[in-house]
Amino acid sequence: MTRPATVTIVEVGPRDGLQNEGRIVPIEQRIAVIDALSRSGLPIVEAGSFVSPRAIPQMAGTGEVLRGISKTEATRYPVLVPNATGMRHAIDAGARDVAVFVSASESFSRRNINCSIAASLDHVAEVVALAGPQGIRVRGYISCVLGCPYEGDVAATTVAGIAGRLASLGCDEISLGDTIGIGTAQQAQDMVRAVVQTVPMARLAVHFHDTCGQALANVLACLEAGIAVIDSAAGGLGGCPYANGASGNLATEDLLYMLDGLGIASSVDIEALLDAVELIETSLGIAARSKLFAARRRQSARLGSGGMTRQQQGVAEAGRHARMN
Ligand code: MG
After folding, report:
1. How much distance in Å is there from the Cα of 247 to the middle of ligand 1?
2. Which tens digit of pLDDT belongs to each residue from 66-99?
3. Of 41, 123, 236, 285, which is the most buried if we count CB atoms within 10 A?
């Protein structure tokens, strides 16, 4: 058993989440949600991306978002950049952390971003070259690490090879993403064990989608392999671009509930996080997709009509306990 004692949660809701929601959220509301998320103690909150607003209108105005948020010392605010042009915009907006992306599947890469894997790696090299002199931290995302909607299976050795390339190009951290939420626990653990042959565990993160209900199981399997950085999105923001109406990113609050039960600490106050999820629902008009948020809402409704069941007391107690971690 090599589970870590503490984990770092990378909140991806305001970027990966919102870019996959149909609704375009105004800049002021994006700022309010990011501020609410950082108040919960999240150490990393992805703030947006500098991609073409024609391609992804949800992320237009990320420069204003980055300038408008109330930055805290305890939180970092990465932005996604596809190439050197995006990187220059990010630098102009004061970004100190950026993220780049590459697919483990050639077909996905060409169809999703109209670019080969080799060309994506060239873009990464351009971004890293601009980041280095500024001391900007670069995270690399790899998509389709457990399967591709066009090619099917993706070999763990392929993922390990791309992760090794990203590390050697200068990415500080590499996030392994099951973009279509197709993978299961053993496969996820095997993939991490293959990748760690090329990149040290301390530089790896995992990114799961709950499309098939496997996200938490996959996280647990990867924790047992030694992973200590986990991506998630408050309220399960994001949906799934390949399956209309399906669950998207793993919900941060569901992840926190599991970590608490495992005795694994994070820096996040679960009550403050649930306040941020409530803001996402009420202000953004996007329904939260997490199990914990739904359970807490049902518990509140029950309390309003008198008394908690034993199970509901357990949910409330877990929330109080998690706040201390
Ligand atoms: Mg995602």
Report:
1. 11
2. 999 999 999 999 999 999 999 999 999 999 999 9
3. 236
